[in-house]
Amino acid sequence: MQHLSTHKFVNDFTEAFDGDQSGDTQPRQTPGVLYSRVLPSPVKAPKLLAWTTDLAADLGIAEPDENDLNILGGNAVNPSMKPYAACYAGHQFGNWAGQLGDGRAITLGEWPLPDGKTWELQLKGAGLTPYSRRADGRAVLRSSVREYLMSEAMFHLGVPTTRALSLVATGDQVRRDMFYDGRPAPEPGAIVMRAAPSFLRFGNFEMLSARKEYENLQKLVDWTIERFYPELTGADKTLQWFKKVMESTATMVVEWLRVGFVHGVMNTDNMSILGLTIDYGPFSFLDAYDLNFSPNTTDHPGLRYAYGKQHSIAYWNLSCLANAISPLFEDPKELISTVESFGPVFYEKFYSMKADKMGLDELVTGDINLIDDFENLMAEIQPDMTIFYQLLGDLPDGLTDPTAIHTHFTPSFYYDLSEIQQDLLAKNISIYQERLGKNTISRAVSKSKMRASNPRFILRNYLLYEAIQELEKGNDQLFKKLQKALATPYSKTHDEFFALRPQWANEQPGSATLSCSS
Ligand code: AMP
Ligand code: MG
């Protein structure tokens, strides 16, 4: 185990590419460079609120001492670090937004692993960078707690994600207009140390393309391939790489749909080039199965980023990426046909995921219809997604009586079903039971498949909301409980949280609805 303050970091990214070395944080455009060197701004009184022991152990990072805490709070850097803010661009809510960049994230350096790979360690909320535009470069406790807990929850659910190593209260106040009603108020500030093999986004590539810096673009593509897809070496490696990005993006979205996750801001600057869930903001798990649900109030007019639209948006975003790298192709024909194959790639993964959730052995004729009908049923009755799938796994064999079926699933309902809805439920469940009977695997194997695909504990927004309220008053009991529960989301150990979303949370701002003010 090595200490953050003394271990020798590597800086492959800053060494490979041109950057602005001035250290100046004046907001500006930075043409010609991929990053700007910048130091974290000091904070008043860093206090460690959470440390991710399992991630630290995996990376070989020692429990933080006083010197390390100063690094986690942005009050010191290790002399081997070359901290920087990355320059990227992006499409936000469907529109080209131009240069964005790390406005409040600062990568300290790359932590070397014994196998020669490295992980980027990044502070979020560490102060101004040239990309802060009119904002302050800081983050509030509520959004930092959400990012800290949720990235770890997603990891333990088995969803590809960036990680969070620490959560530090800064001791400073940050002013935020949480409700966008013109009444900003001071809130406690915090910093999360995020960790990932890379925080590169679609937007890093889009920026170089928009600026027609094709040499830099080619170099960034080659660097990414060499580092993360070294097996791709042929003349068509850029095309093959794009296919990999498309596949990992499809896998990520399928995993979101499996656990009921709504990202909330799928702008292209929030799409990881490695297919990791990145930039946790106004996200939510589904309570009721509502395909049109998004907690993001900024997205409420059009619901572009609602749960059930995430795969279409992934496709749209991949088209932006393809468009950005197209100048690197003499003939973009194959690139275009690759993007167009997103549908089949996605749907194959999607149906196989749904089959697992339903305990089907493998997809046979008729299963796609069965799954589609099941989806329609759920969209119609909108049960609690998590509880419904748990009840599906507990379905007694041969349950065909409509009343008994209704009773069995009642704990997952947010309202009383109409007779038509009850009939629909009974019909679908009977057909489903028949199909289960044709499985070539045993019922026990089928059930264990279901248990592995259907989480029993999800980090619901109202739980996060309550934990944050308590933390702001200095009580970390619920925070600690959630931290423990999210580590084993498929077990029954944390059944005190196995319940419908309570009434009070239905309309609660900060729980049911979230703004981008963070
Ligand atoms: P997001 O929608 O949170 O991914 O952020 C979009 C852009 O705004 C990124 O360039 C962020 O770095 C920047 N940004 C968000 N919040 C702040 C902040 N408090 N200070 C500086 N930049 C920010
Ligand atoms: Mg972002």
Could you explain the architecture of this structure?
The chain has 518 residues and is an alpha+beta fold. It has 4 domains: 12-198, no CATH class; 203-351, no CATH class; 365-437, no CATH class; 461-506, no CATH class. Helix content is 40%, strand content 13%. The protein is built from 17 helices and 13 strands. The protein has helices spanning 12-16, 53-59, 66-72, 141-157, 202-210, 214-228, 237-259, 310-325, 333-340, 342-358, 367-381, 385-393, 402-409, 419-437, 443-453, 461-472, 477-485; strands at residues 19-20, 35-37, 47-51, 84-86, 89-92, 95-99, 105-112, 118-124, 139-140, 163-176, 185-196, 261-262, 284-285. The strands form 4 sheets. Strands 3, 7, 8, 9, 10 and 11 form a 6-stranded antiparallel beta sheet that branches. Strands 1-2-4 form a 3-stranded mixed beta sheet, with no helix packed on it. The mean pLDDT is 97. The structure holds adenosine monophosphate and magnesium ion. Adenosine monophosphate (AMP) is lined by residues 100-104, 131-132, 135-138, 265, 269-270, 279, 281, 516.
